[in-house]
Write a structure and sequence with these properties.
The structure holds 2 protein chains of 2 kinds. By secondary structure, chain A is mainly alpha-helical. Helices cover 75% and strands 3% of the residues of chain A. Chain A contains 23 helices and 2 strands. Chain A has a two-stranded antiparallel ribbon. The termini of chain A are far apart. Chain B is mainly alpha-helical. Chain B has one domain. Chain B is built from 21 helices and 6 strands. Chain B is globular. The two termini of chain B are 26 Å apart. Classes of the chains: A mainly alpha, B mainly alpha. Chain A binds chain B through residues 60-66, 134-139, 141-142, 145-146, 149-150, 156-157, 160-161, 164-165, 168-169, 172-173, 175-176, 179-180, 182-183, 186-187, 189-191, and chain B through 365-370, 374, 429, 432-436, 440-441, 443-445, 447-448, 451-452, 459-460, 463, 466-467, 470-471, 474-475, 478, 481-483, 517-519, 522-523, 526.
């Protein structure tokens, strides 16, 4: 029941906010988001690290189709659930006044759609029935569409349309694969969509590979991977920073989450077979994303494209099929969520002050707003993987796995370190340092308490997990172990002889 | 030749007889009541008739007997009226569905508040558009109450169509359902020339299609020596030398029925008729005709020509693909809501045909897997509710010239009337097949049965067309919510009476419930069982 409560609380909250008067929308919304955070904490507290998939619920939903309302969390699901419940209240806090701006659709609908998105995303991470997963996977697009289309900058309508078209196209390809799963499942007895049944299913090699591609393409659009990434930068540019956080840090995680849980879980053979192609795409995303990020002038486009590079690394970690790669990918999902959210929100504060998102037009902000500049620097350093901040750990694990897969893969992936240093530090240098323009000197105020409180938890988490990543590792390691067992892979033994044996 | 007195199973045929009787009483009311006082009795009569028919349908459906067919085929129901009417599970389900849609149709027909106290039908159909007589009729507030008996006649034809047990009954049903609809299409109060043009086109093309059907019936009779579906089935399974005769017959019969369901390449009438007809008629016709004609098509193909499956399945592949592609592509370039919905209905016809061609024999299905018939019946249910609801909303959005169907009039509707625009968006999302709406489950059902039958190329095309179709649905949602209202006047939502708003609400609830908890209706569809012969 706990997971149902977790999923339904924000959805019910969204409906309530939509019905309550406008004056209390934001307070009520924040209250619901905080309550969900508490429920998420209870879920984490009752989670047993070595217990496999747990807190499961299962009810018959559509008997004729073999569909169940089935929820459950494993290590991967739990971490993403916690990330989601943490980020939503922070976004609501950081965007407190933004939705009231003239020309946008009003705070009430912003809060309601955000909560709806939260509930549906939580359902995605908890669903253990493929049909249920598909339903909520698609349903998340509706709140996301209205969030992008209703709030943000000029041209957001077109951006929202592009976003939706890409996602729905991916969703329909996924639909074909989901239907195919039903047919395969029906051929071998009573049709069922339960993940536990599907994992035991004996899918033929050819059918498995086709179905794998259906799933993979949908997730590659979501994540996004080169060459299906073109919606990303437009969307993050036009949407508000908060929506950007919800999209990039939560919704896009569904892509890499799905690759792990469904591609590897249901189609282990096909996943291994497709590894060379996927790794090539991932590497192109890593390098290409970083290069075009360097060339961006719009700060939100830049942040969006850094995510392309990072999602390339996550995918790389998933498909190296080693326990370091898997753990690294899971950690990376969480850390990318924390770091990019911080970067988006702080850049949003910057945009509120300067009125422009063009890097070229900003200069010398650190003199008038030192706290803002400091936070931007920390968030930026997290993004580039500085040791001592949490993304470093995950990036390191992925690189280890990449070198293990092939030295050339590792060599290409490691360039991300250099390239990310360029786009982050160069962006920081151009916006923050230098002489402050006289008109900005008077107009720019440093961050207020609300703004600092909204990003403080992110900063704390970045530093804490940078020095002490053990909690994350403890949760994700058993899950990765199970997954590797399902895929049927054991890590290579070290080729260098142990020192004791050498004597 | 000896003439046998036919024996009729009055109890089982009651829904059909009630509707026919109600229609005849309606004609008598037209003759004897003075013009000004006819509306209320006619509306009341139509409602009572349909509700009574609905109740008797439920009663009939509750105790259908087991039926042992000629070649051991099992099912529930009875072959009545000397073999010309078959009352089995699918028939009863379709009857129920059609009568529910008829209720929606009557409610929309009776709406008066939108036009400021008169109905959406012309005051004097015989008066020339723009003439003195027309002006006089409209100043006197005249209206045609014949529309209610006409609707009942059309409904009776629709009820008979999927229930017919032989080709002649099917032809008669086709005509009973078509003739009143031709007439209803030409009765719009506003834009009368467009409306009359629609009626004319519909009539001419429909007459051709009927001719094809009749010709096909003659050829099949020549092959099988029988017009009853059971007899044709036996002849087809036995095989005979004149196979070409049978193939030509199937083809011509299919032309007649594919015209009625609006499948490509027989879809040309759809946009013009949907646009020109009074929107209330369009709503009723779009849902009702499609349900009835698909029922008839299913019975004809599955029962009469089931043994010849390998001959007609490839034909349906081509037709389904053509309908989906044509409907989706042409809908993108429309700039009128009614035409957009019309082309999208062509695409939906293709989607339903994907389900029809996914037929498999019982041995090929896994335990617990549902059949293609069930998938199609469910899709028809979801489609009908979404169509009626969407067209009902079209009647609400108006400007000085009546219904504002041009796209630019709908811009910014989400700001001024979020509820109505939201409801319309929901229907569009259902038609697009987004999860948590009924359309998704329907699409899922038909695609799955086609894929299990091995028709994966058609399913891939269907998926591609769904992506295409999403473009124009989403573009319309964007138009309503994220586009500024046009400078030269936007459409406004007119307050309607409970008749229209109630219909919309019912359709909305049905679309939501069928999308979230489709279980009960799917169970009902599963329990209807198979066609009997």
């Amino acid at each position: 029941m706990l997971l149902s409560l977790l999923v339904w609380l924000p959805i019910a909250g969204a409906v309530a906010v939509a019905l309550l008067p406008r004056t209390v929308s934001k307070t009520a919304g924040l209250g619901v988001a905080l309550a969900t955070l508490v429920v998420g904490g209870v879920v984490a507290a009752s989670y047993e690290v070595d217990g496999g998939r747990q807190l499961t619920e299962e009810h018959q939903w559509i008997e004729a189709f073999g569909v169940h309302y089935a929820l459950g969390v494993d290590g991967l699901g739990l971490l993403l659930v916690l990330l989601t419940v943490l980020l939503v209240p922070l976004v609501l806090g950081a965007e407190w006044f933004k939705a009231d701006a003239v020309g946008s659709a009003g705070a009430r609908s912003f809060v309601a759609w955000t909560l709806a998105l939260e509930g549906l995303s939580l359902a995605v991470f908890c669903a253990t029935d493929v049909f249920l997963f598909y339903v909520v996977f698609e349903a998340t697009l509706i709140p996301a569409y209205f969030l992008v289309g209703g709030f943000g900058r000029e041209g957001r309508g077109a951006a929202a349309l592009k976003f939706l078209m890409f996602q729905l196209a991916g969703g329909l390809i996924l639909l074909a694969a989901v239907i195919g799963l039903y047919v395969v499942s029906a051929q071998q007895g009573e049709p069922s969509y339960l993940l536990s049944d599907l994992e035991r299913l004996d899918i033929g090699t050819e059918a498995g590979r086709w179905l794998f591609f259906g799933f993979f393409i949908a997730f590659a659009i979501k994540a996004p991977l080169f060459p299906l990434h073109t919606w990303l930068a437009d969307t993050t540019e036009k949407a508000t920073p908060g929506t950007g956080v919800l999209l990039v840090c939560i919704l896009d995680k569904i892509g890499t989450f799905g690759m792990m849980r469904f591609c590897l879980g249901i189609f282990p053979e096909a996943s291994q077979w497709a590894t060379p192609l996927v790794i090539t795409l991932a590497l192109i995303s890593v390098v290409y994303g970083a290069f075009i990020a360097i060339g961006q002038d719009d700060i939100f486009r830049l942040i969006g494209l850094t995510s392309l590079s990072h999602f390339g690394l996550i995918t790389l970690g998933v498909f190296t099929m080693t326990s370091q790669g898997g753990t690294g990918a899971i950690l990376y999902m969480v850390n990318h969520g924390l770091g990019t959210a911080a970067l988006f929100l702080v850049a949003g504060y910057l945009y509120d002050r300067s009125g422009t998102s063009s890097i070229r037009e900003m200069r010398g902000v650190e003199k008038v707003a030192p706290v803002l500049a400091g936070l931007l620097l920390v968030a930026g350093l997290a993004t580039l993987g500085l040791p001592g901040l949490s993304p470093f750990v995950s990036e390191f694990l992925v690189f280890v796995a990449a070198f293990d897969y092939g030295w050339y893969v590792g060599a290409i992936a490691v360039t991300a370190v250099v390239l990310s240093a360029i786009y982050v530090l160069w962006m920081y240098q151009r916006t923050m340092t230098g002489p402050t323009p006289p008109e900005a000197e008077a107009a720019t105020k440093d961050l207020g308490v609300r703004e600092i409180v909204a990003v403080a938890p992110l900063m704390a988490a970045l530093v804490f997990f940078g020095f002490y990543p053990a909690p994350l590792l403890d949760v994700s390691n058993p899950m990765v172990g199970d997954l590797m067992h399902q895929v049927g892979i054991q890590d290579d033994q070290p080729t260098v002889a142990q020192t004791e044996e050498a004597h | 030749m000896e003439f046998v007195k036919p024996e009729l199973e009055y109890a089982e045929l009651l829904p059909l007889l009630i509707v026919l009787g109600g229609a005849c009483v309606g004609v008598a009311l037209e003759a004897f009541l003075p013009r000004g006082t006819r509306r209320l009795p006619q509306v009341g009569l139509a409602l009572v008739t349909v509700v009574a028919a609905l109740v008797s349908t439920v009663v009939v459906g509750m105790d259908l007997d087991e039926h042992q067919g000629a070649d051991g085929a099992e099912g529930r129901g009875l072959v009545g009226a000397m073999g010309s009417v078959v009352v089995d599970g699918p028939t009863v389900y379709l009857w129920g569905l059609l009568l529910v849609f008829a209720l929606g149709g009557i409610a929309l027909f009776a709406e008066q508040r939108l036009e400021g106290g008169v109905s959406a039908f012309t005051g004097q159909a015989a008066a020339l558009p723009g003439s003195e007589g027309e002006r006089e009729a409209s100043t006197r507030g005249l209206e045609h109450t014949e529309v209610y008996p006409l609707l009942l006649f059309a409904v009776s034809g629709m009820l008979l169509f999927p229930a017919s047990g032989d080709l002649l009954t099917m032809f008669v049903a086709l005509e009973i359902l078509s003739l009143p609809l031709y007439l209803l299409c030409g009765l719009a109060r506003r834009r009368r020339l467009l409306s009359q043009e629609a009626a004319m086109k519909y009539f001419l093309l429909g007459a051709f299609a009927s001719g094809f059907f009749l010709y096909g019936a003659a050829l099949v009779y020549g092959y099988a020596g029988s017009v009853s579906f059971a007899g044709i089935n036996e002849a087809v399974r036995a095989g005979s030398a004149n196979h070409g005769l049978l193939l030509a017959g199937i083809g011509l019969l299919a032309v007649g029925l594919l015209f009625k369901i609006g499948a490509a390449p027989f879809q040309a009438w759809t946009p013009d008729v949907y646009q020109g007809a009074p929107t209330a008629v369009t709503a009723f016709m779009a849902a009702g005709t499609k349900v009835a004609a698909f029922g008839a098509l299913l019975r004809l193909l599955y029962v009469a020509f089931g043994g010849e499956r390998w001959s007609w399945q490839p034909m349906l592949w081509v037709i389904a693909i053509a309908s989906m592609v044509l409907g989706a592509v042409l809908a993108i370039v429309q700039n009128d809501v009614k035409r957009m919905l019309a082309y999208s209905s062509v695409a939906h016809t293709g989607f339903i045909l994907v389900g029809v061609l996914g037929v498999q024999s019982a041995g090929e299905l896994a335990k617990g897997q549902y059949t293609s018939l069930e998938g199609v019946l469910f899709y028809l249910t979801t489609y009908g509710f979404a169509m009626i609801g969407a067209f009902a909303i079209v009647t609400l959005v108006r400007d000085a010239g009546g219904e504002a169907t041009a796209y630019e009039r709908w811009a910014g509707l989400g700001r001024t009337s979020p509820l109505v625009a939201g409801a319309f968006a929901f229907f569009l999302l259902s038609m697009a097949g987004i999860p948590l709406t009924a359309g998704f489950i329907g699409k899922w059902a038909v695609f799955t049965s086609a894929l299990s039958a091995g028709a994966w190329p058609v399913v891939l095309v269907a998926i591609a067309c769904s992506i295409l179709a999403i473009t124009f649905y989403v573009r319309h949602i964007r138009l309503m919510f994220f586009t500024e209202p046009s400078a030269d006047g936007a459409g406004v939502v007119t307050r309607s009476s409970l008749l229209t708003s109630g219909t919309i609400t019912v359709c909305l609830v049905a679309t939501l419930v069928l999308g979230v908890v489709p279980g009960p209706v799917l169970d009902l569809v599963t329990r209807t069982g198979d066609f009997i012969r």
